[in-house]
Amino acid sequence: MKRLTLKSLGVLALFLVFLTGCTNKVAVLNPQGPVAKQQYDLIIWSFILMAIVVAGVLIIFIYVLVRYGRKNSKGYDPEDEGNAKLEALWTIIPIIIVILLAVPTVKTLYGLEGPPKPANATGKKVEPITIEVTSVDWKWLFRYPKQGIETVNYAVIPEDTPVKIKLKAIGAMNSFWVPELAGQQYTMPNMPMNMWIQADHPGDYLGRSANFSGKGFAHMSFHILAKKDANFDAWVKDVKANKPALTMEKYKKLLEPDIAGEMTFSSYPKVLDKKDAAMEQHMNNDDMEGGMNHDSGH
Amino acid sequence: MIADIKAFLSDFLVLGDPLIYGADISIVLSMVAIVFVLSYFKKWKWLWKEWLTTIDAKKIGIMYIIAALLMLFRGGIDALLMRSQITFPNEGFLDSQHYNEIFTTHGTIMILFMAMPFIVGMMNVAVPLQIGARDVAFPYLNALSFWLFFVGAMLFNLSFVIGGSPDAGWTSYTPLAGAKLDPGPGENYYLIGLQLAGIGTLATGVNFMATILKMRAPGMTLFKMPMFTWSSLITSLIIVFAFPVLTVALALLTIDRLFGAHFFTIASGGSPMMWANLFWIWGHPEVYIVILPAFGIFSEVISTFSHKKLFGYKAMVWSMVLISALSFVVWLHHFFTMGNTAAVNSVFSISTMAIAIPTGVKIFNWLFTLNKGRIEFSTAMLWALAFIPNFLIGGLTGVMLAIAPADYQYHNSYFLVAHFHSVLIGGTVFGMFAALHYWWPKMFGHVLNEKLGKISFWIFMVSFNICFLPMYFVGLMGMTRRMYTYPEGLGWMPLNVVITIGAFGMGIGFIVMVYNIYWSARYGKRDKTGDPWGGRTLEWATTSPAVEYNFAHIPKVETADAFLHMKEKGTTGQISKAPFKPIHMPNNSGKPFIQAWLMFFAGFGLVFEWYWLAIPAAAATMLVMAFRSFEYHDHHYIPVEEIERTESATGRLN
C-alpha cells in the first residue's frame, strides 16, 4: 500500500503548488496579462475538476485493494459481472465533466479572437498597437509598421495596451510563446496568423520558440519588455534618433540561418512593407541559394 | 578524385564523433560474437529452419518481442543520452545536431519499432490460441509482415553509423524535413524505414482482422471472445484504416525529397501544413493502436488475478469501439496552435474530451472487476494495478491538453512530454510488461521469477514517477521539448536533476527485468500444466509452450471465459483425446525473409539515391513475389502418428 500513499501525497503536493501559487518561476501559473489570465483560469478550473476525478478513482482503488487484497476476504463473488445502474452512473459523470469543461473552453476560444479588455477598466478605449513578428532560422524579427522601427530578439510594448501580433515565418515553422503574457501560436511560412498579447504591468517577460526548427532552435528566446506609456514613447523616440537603419543588405544577412543577439534599428527598408508577402514567398521557395534547386525555372 | 572519395566516406561513415565510433565498434563486435556463437555451436541450420523461415505465429510473435526488447534498449539509451545532456544548464556532452538526431530516433524507435512490434508480437502469441485456431489466416503474409518490420527497423537504425540519423523529430514536420532545410540521407532513412515497417503493419492488420473474424473455434461468437482478442480486432481495424494514410504521406514526402516534387513545399502551390494533417490523421489513431491492446491485456490480467469475471464485458467492448471511432476525428488537437478558427478548435476540443467518456467507463469497469474479487498480487497483476493510477494521471492531463486555449500554454512544452509518456509508458509499456510476465510461460514453458519480477516492477514504477511527474512542472515553467540545452537562472535545473535520476532508475528496473529473463530461463519454475495462473481463456487449455498445431482437437466454446467453463464441466481432456485426424498446416518458407532483405537493399538504394541498387533490388522483389504465386505445394498434413507422439510426450494423452 506504500505506493498508494506516495501517489496520494504526490497529488496533494501538486494541488498545494497550485493553491499556494509558488509561481514566480512557474511562468504558466503566473499570468501577467488578460490573455494569459483567461488561459490560466481555464487551467485552474480543469485542474480542480481533474483533482476531483483523481480523488474519486483513488478512493475506490484503495478501497477495493485493501478490502479484497487480503487472503480470505469476505464477499468474494466470482460471478459478479455488471450492474446497469452503476455503469450508467459512470457514463453520465464523465459526460457532465466534459460539458463543464467544454462550455468555458468554447467561450474562451471565441473570446481570444478579439483584442483583450484592459485590466484597469477605466472605460476609455485604448488604441491597439501592431507588431509584425517573423521567425527566421534562428531568431525573431519584430517590426513596428506604424513606428517604422525594427528589433531583433526583443520587443518593447506599452502596458495595458492590446498588442496585435502578426505572425509569419521565413524558413522552418516556429511557435511564438510568452507564457506569462499569452499561450503560443505557430509561425508558418505563407500562412500569416494573428494573436493578441497584453501586459498588465511593466516588466521583462521571457518568450521562446516552442516548435523545433533545427540546430539553433534552443537559442530562440526573446524578451518582451512592457513599459509605461510615456516610457514606451520615449523608447521609440530614442530608437528613431540614435539607432542605425536596417539596410536591405543587413536584412538579407539576418535571413541567413544563424543565431543572433538583440538588435535595434531606427528604420527598415520601406520596400519590405509593400513587398513583404512577395519577399517571404521568395525566401520560402526552393530556389533560395543553398537549396536543393530542383526546379531551375526562375 | 581521392579528395572526393574521402569526403564521401567521411559523410557516409559519419566520421569524427567518438560516440559513433563506439557504436561502430560495438556493432562489429556483436556481429562477430553472433557469427562465432552460431558457428561454434553449429546453430546456423537451426536458426534458418526454426526461426528465419518459420511461419508459425507463436515463433513470429517471439521474434517480434525480442526485437521490441532490443529496440526498447536502443530507445532507452537514446533517452539516457538526452537526459545526460539536459540535466544541468549549458552542458556540452552532446552538440545540437547530435541531440536532434537522438530525440528523433528515440521517438521514432519507441513508437514504431518498440511499441508496435511489442503489441503485434503479443497478438501473434496470444490471439490464435485465444480463439482456438491453429495459426493466423495468412501465415506466409504474417512472416512477410515480420521481416518487413524487421528490415525497416534495421534500415532506420543503420542511419546512426552510415550517413547520419534523421534530425527533424519523429513527427518530421515540413518544411523542416524537406529537401531544402534538411538535405542528406538522414530524413530519407526515416521515410523509407517507416515505409517498409508500415507496409508490414498494414498486412498484419488485414491478417488479424481475417483471423479473428473467420477462424474462431466453433461456438465462439463475437461476444464470447476474450477481451484481448476484442482489442486486437479493433486495433486491426484501426490499422487498416489509418496506415494507408501514413504510406501515402511518406511516399509523397519521399517524392518531394528524391524527385523534387512540391507536395509539402511553398513553391508551386504545395502546403507544408498538409504534412501535419496527414501525419496526425495516421498519428492519432496510431496512439490508440498502441493503447487498445494494452487495455485488452489489462482486462485479461485483472480478471484472471481477481479470479473473477470481467465487470461490464459489453460496456468494455463498446467503449473500445467508440474510442476507435473517435480516434479518427481528433487529429487536429495536435495543432490547435496552427491558427485555426475558434469554431474548428472548439469542435476538436470537444471531440477530444469526449474520448474521456468511454475511457472513464473502462477505468471504472476495471475497478469493479477488482471489487468482490480475490486479488492475487502477482507481477503481471502489479503492472496492471499500477496502470490504473498512472494512466489516470496521463489521461486526465490529456483532457487538460484537449482544452484548446489551455493547450496554447502546454503545447510542445514538457507538460506535453510528461503527458504522452504517462499514457504511453503507464499504458502501453506497463501493459506489455504485464503481458510479458503473463504469457511468458505460454511462450517458453517456464514462469518468470516472481521475486525478481516484483523488484524490477517497483524500481521501474517508482522511477517512472520520479522521472515524469516533475516534467509537468518544468513544462509549466516554460521549458519546451527538443531543446538541446538551456541557460542558467531559469530555475529549471533542480527538477531536471530529479528527472534524470528517475530516467536512470527506469534503466536499472529494465536491467533487473532482463536479468530475470536470463535467471528464469536457467532456473525458473517449469510450467508442466499449461495453466500456471488458473486461466480463464483458451490459450491456457493447451501446453506451455503450445505445440506446433496449438490444439490437437479444436475446442468447442459455449461461454465467454471458455477454458474456465471447460474446467468447471470437466471437459478439458477433450482437446487431447484420441482418435486424431491429420492436421493441415502451412509449410515454412524462406521467401518472406529473402523478399524483405531485397526490399531492404532497394530501400537503402533510395536513401542514398543510388538507383543502380534500388531498381535491381526492387525488380528482384517482384521476382520473389512472382515465384511465390506459382508455388502450389505450400502446405502439408501432420500425420496421426506424429500427433499421437507429440501428445503423449506432453503427458496429455492417456
From TrEMBL, chain A:
Under Pfam families, the record lists: COX2_TM (PF02790)
Database matches in NCBIfam families: QOXA
Family, according to the entry, reads as follows: Belongs to the cytochrome c oxidase subunit 2 family.
Occurrences of domain Cytochrome oxidase subunit II copper A binding (ranges): 126-238
Catalysis performed (reactions)? 2 a quinol + O2 = 2 a quinone + 2 H2O
What does this gene product do?
Answer: Catalyzes quinol oxidation with the concomitant reduction of oxygen to water. Subunit II transfers the electrons from a quinol to the binuclear center of the catalytic subunit I.
Protein name (database record) = Quinol oxidase subunit 2
Every copy of the Cytochrome oxidase subunit II transmembrane region profile domain together lies at: 20-116
Q: Which GO terms describe its molecular function?
A: copper ion binding; cytochrome bo3 ubiquinol oxidase activity; cytochrome-c oxidase activity; oxidoreductase activity, acting on diphenols and related substances as donors, oxygen as acceptor
Q: Which PROSITE patterns match?
A: COX2_CUA, COX2_TM, PROKAR_LIPOPROTEIN
- Biological processes annotated in GO: ATP synthesis coupled electron transport
Which keywords, in A-to-Z order, does the entry hold? Answer: Cell membrane, Electron transport, Membrane, Oxidoreductase, Respiratory chain, Signal, Transmembrane, Transmembrane helix, Transport
Compartments where found: Cell membrane
- How does the protein associate with the membrane? Multi-pass membrane protein
Q: What is its main location?
A: membrane
Tell me what organism the protein belongs to: Scopulibacillus darangshiensis
CDD domains for this protein: CuRO_UO_II
UniProtKB/TrEMBL annotation, chain B:
Compartments where located: Cell membrane
Keyword Repeat recorded: no
Major subcellular site: membrane
Family classification = Belongs to the heme-copper respiratory oxidase family.
Gene3D superfamilies documented for this protein: Cytochrome c oxidase-like, subunit I domain
| Membrane topology qualifier | Multi-pass membrane protein
Q: What class of enzyme is it?
A: oxidoreductase
Q: What species is given as this protein's source?
A: Scopulibacillus darangshiensis
GO CC terms for this protein? plasma membrane; respiratory chain complex
Q: What is its EC number?
A: 1.10.3.-
Q: How is the cofactor bound?
A: Heme A3. Binds a copper B center.
Question: Which residues span the membrane?
Answer: 20-41, 62-82, 102-127, 139-162, 189-213, 233-255, 287-305, 317-336, 348-368, 380-404, 416-440, 452-473, 493-518, 593-613
Instruction: Give the protein's recorded name.
Output: Quinol oxidase subunit 1
Keyword terms of this UniProt record: Cell membrane, Copper, Electron transport, Heme, Hydrogen ion transport, Ion transport, Iron, Membrane, Metal-binding, Oxidoreductase, Respiratory chain, Translocase, Transmembrane, Transmembrane helix, Transport
Give any GO molecular function from the UniProt entry. heme binding
Q: Which reaction does it catalyse?
A: 2 a quinol + O2 = 2 a quinone + 2 H2O; 4 Fe(II)-[cytochrome c] + O2 + 8 H(+)(in) = 4 Fe(III)-[cytochrome c] + 2 H2O + 4 H(+)(out)
Pfam families in alphabetical order? COX1
- Cofactor entry: ferriheme a; Cu cation
